[in-house]
Amino acid sequence: MKKISQTDIKRDSEKSPRLSKLANFFAQSNFGAVTRVRKLSDVEVWKRSVGYHKLIAYINNTSSVIQGIRQSDDYPVSETMSRLLTIFDKLENLLAANPPIYMAGSIKGSLDKDRRGNPAYRNWSRHMLRDIFPILEQAVSNKNCIHINELGQYLCESFGNSTRMSYGTGHELSFLFFLCALFEAEILDEDDLAASALLLFDRYLKFVRRLQVLYNLYAAGRHGAYSLDDFQFVPFLWGCAQLSYNAPFVPNRMLDADVVSEYKKDYMLMGCVGHISDTKDGTFAMHSSQLWCIASLSSWNELYGGLLDMYDKVVLRQFDLMQLARFGQLISFDKVKPGAVLIQAQLGVMSPLQQKILEGEDDVEEEQNWENAEPTKKSIRKNKKKPLLESSPPKSHSAISSGVRCSSLSDICVYLRKITDMESCPIEASYKEPIAGHSDDQRVIVSVSTPRVQETIFKFHTRLVEPSDNESD
């Protein structure tokens, strides 16, 4: 058999663009993410890996950013984030094209809820695997397409197992790998941290809930009443982070029906509690005892720390779960550098993002108040007050006219004080000519008698000029 050399491949690839693409694909050193945890000791290797440190850093950094921020707040959403959200719009179309199959013996128009796993889920999963890579390639910028293979593997593993027709926290972890890899590939930046949790992850959460209900999926790795939820964990963690600063209620009220109804659209934790209430019968002490117990903790910071330790124990250290996880260049299984420490969440303080949101709300409120308080020209003319002494008699027995604001005199400011009612009202008068015999800043007291005012004192702050030579003569 003739051996094919690299020169022959290069020559043939130049003739055909299709062969060129194939040559470039097989020439790459990495074909995507692969499983690395094959034995129990590999779990400890995973804990000391670069990927583990990056994942914990992403979870805690996101928690620090979203504390005190509701999902309905005006946080920044980039154009790339908006394109990533379109992924779920196209996956929703695949759901419409693959409706649930009614089982034999079931009533037409109704689903058999006692039988887990609808075969239509396998049809949807097959179509999803066929379309997910082109959909993802359209959602990210062209310059970052070198990571499409790895990103697509994380994403397609996020929607459950089509063989078992199940979904669990391992698939949720795969979507966390996808989110973390988006930042490592520089498709998203630091400003997208809040939107990645409150918008993109929330959209994913709503979509997989629809998968669970529509196709009646099994709960993979279910712990029954001793787990927070049959399918999810991360929204409880980030939901506590949201409530770690300026929370409108305390932890022991998070299971109250009125609190859940009021805040389930603002906080991920309350949305999870509301979903459990809608899908399970009985009290929380019966079907969700773990969730019922943690509600007795005193603070949200304490609750977050406990849930993070629990997540590390029941998810990130579980061999049965981690043996299915895939690792690549973005989420690396390589050993971390000596001396590296895990990033911790800084909770209980106002995040810079929340400060920007509050400043923006204050600016908008101030602008609205200014617009509402600014009167129109017509109202100004209508409400314009008349001069204080306009109603006074136009004629006076004194040499100074007190009936108008400006008299015929100049350069003298007049202050009128009524002795009878002890009220002060200024009068600006000006004299055309100075008063002879008075120097600057001299005060003159003039007694004026009018029919309405018996005794009046005028104080003149005079600004007199020296008389001219002709006048002095």
What is the gist of this entry?
47% of the residues lie in helices and 8% in strands. The protein has 19 helices and 8 strands.
Structure description:
It is built from 19 helices and eight strands. The chain is α+β, with helices and mostly antiparallel strands. It has two domains: 31-101 and 116-354, no CATH class; 409-472, no CATH class. α5 packs parallel to α9 (193-214). It is globular and about 75 Å long.
Notable features of this structure?
two-stranded antiparallel sheet; disordered C terminus; 8% strand; PTPA_C_lid; Serine/threonine-protein phosphatase 2A activator; 4-stranded antiparallel β-sheet; alpha+beta
Strand order of the largest sheet: 6-5-8-7
What does the radius of gyration come to?
A: 39 Å
Mean pLDDT: 78
Unreliable sequence segments? 107-111, 377-382, 384-473
Q: Structural class, from helix and strand content?
A: alpha+beta
Q: What does the oligomeric state look like here? A: single chain
Percent strand: 5-15%
**Level of helix content?**
40-55%
Largest sheet, if any? 4 strands, antiparallel
Number of helices: 19
